Amino acid sequence: MADKFVFTPSPIKQLGTDYDVIIIGSGSTGLTCAIQAYELGLKPVILEKMDKIGGNTNRASSGMNAAETEVQLANGVVDSFAEFYDETYQGGGKLNNQEMLEYFTTHTALAIEWLSSHDIELTDLTITGGMSKKRAHRPASTAPVGAYLIKGLLRIIQKENIPLFTQVKVEHIKKNASDTEVVIRLSDEMRKTIVGKSIVIATGGFGAGTKWIKKYRPELLNYKTTNHGGATGDGLSLAQEIGAELIQMEMIQIHPTVQQDTPHAYLIGETVRGEGAILVSSEGKRFVDELDTRKVVSHAITALPGKSAYLIFDEKVRKRVKAIEFYNHIGLVESAETVAELAENLKIDSNNLTSTLAEWNKAVEAGVDTTFGRKTGMNIKLDAGPYYAIHVAPAVHYTMGGIHVDEKTRVLDGNGYAIPGIFAAGEVAGGLHGNNRIGGNSIAETVVFGRQAAQQAYVYLKQ
């Protein structure tokens, strides 16, 4: 794909008054949903409140988890839906909606194929915390998966002339007998009502939504967030307005590796650890299995005296993770030609860091981490200078709770009944991940359930 591609949103004067599917949100969920709806012969529209398209998907870096794919087999990875299900279920504290999880794990391979059929190829593999096999699919260039995915989806949106409007905020949803009225506010503060035969809420989570965090997890108010500024939970309020139930709202994920020494918090993708990086304390010692679940690793870091740690890696890891170039470009990476020099720069005991790396390399060579039991991301030794470090600490990252939906993405009311014609997918929907999301599952969720929402809207409209 050419780097010069620039997407131009639809001029507001082209906004109509009647659509088959009104999709609220332009992240991967919303874009996928719109494309699938269009391919089913429906008339969709995407409404985005921000001036930038893509939402939190733009910030996703690691990959898209999927099992039983041709890509895995081509890389010698034999996987199964059952293993993927079990590890996600265990990782989520067995609090996952099992019907959603079953649909999810058995449709990720189809989602990879669907993307491939649209020339969005994810042919490289890496591994994320909580997974025992390489399931995180990413571009062959190892570029961050999120921006790559958004660019690919926008190419299709543009090619098919699917209407996408930015700076259009949905303020109210009113359910009628046969359709739904949506009140929107335009950038010039004018308001307009449009009608949708069905609605898909794809507004993302509330990781930057102070109101919701204060209500459900006030102890996290002082944490920084990795979320973009628009992730404020608007979709939750819209859903409540038409009688939807919210579930598991207290389940907010803290990501363990976030660089916070700059005004903006930058998530350091799990791929860095998946490709071999280790975590050390300010004493230069390992303290956890770096690829345990995000919940476990975050707790291990906050238990340290300084409540922060350092990601340590070498030139080989840097070459395997293209995102590191971006981290380095914006000044997040400390580098040195030798381990001793790196320790001096970090003000870490040189003997400890040297010893830690030597022990780690022996563990990699033996294939056994007797200290913390790490079993994945142990393919290469950290022995090729220059050496690098990134200072990290936990930050608010993902909201597992949200709108109560079923595996068909139908929005449910407090009695468990589907609200006709209303669907929700992506991070705004609660239940899939339990109390801890596995890295790589969020991007997969956007494609799997973005497609599902469009398909179910089609079924609803053809009844």
Instruction: Name the shape in a single word.
Output: elongated
Kindly state the number of beta strands: 20
Report strand %: 15-25%
What is the alpha-carbon Rg in Å?
A: 22 Å
Largest sheet: 8 strands, mixed
| Total number of helices | 15
Distance between the termini: 39 Å
Give the overall pLDDT as a whole number.
Answer: 96
Tell me which oligomeric state these chains represent. Answer: single chain
Q: What is the helix content?
A: 25-40%
Low-confidence stretches: none
Structural classification:
alpha+beta
Give the tags.
463 residues; alpha+beta; eight-stranded mixed beta sheet; six-stranded antiparallel beta sheet
Short summary:
The protein contains 15 helices and 20 strands.
Write a structural description.
With 463 residues, the protein is of the alpha+beta class. It is built from 15 helices and 20 strands. It has helices at residues 28-39, 70-74, 81-91, 98-105, 108-117, 145-159, 210-216, 234-241, 271-274, 294-302, 315-320, 323-329, 339-346, 350-366, 441-461, and strands spanning 18-24, 44-47, 64-65, 124-126, 136-138, 164-165, 169-175, 180-185, 191-201, 246-247, 252-259, 266-267, 278-280, 309-314, 334-336, 387-399, 402-404, 410-412, 418-424, 429-430. The strands form 4 sheets. Strands 1, 2, 6, 7, 8, 9, 18 and 19 form an 8-stranded mixed beta sheet that branches. Strands 11, 12, 13, 14, 15 and 16 form a 6-stranded antiparallel beta sheet that branches. A hairpin with a 4-residue loop joins β7 and β8 (180-185). The longest helix is centred in the C-terminal third of the chain and has 21 residues, at 441-461. The chain is elongated. The two termini are 39 Å apart. The mean pLDDT is 96.
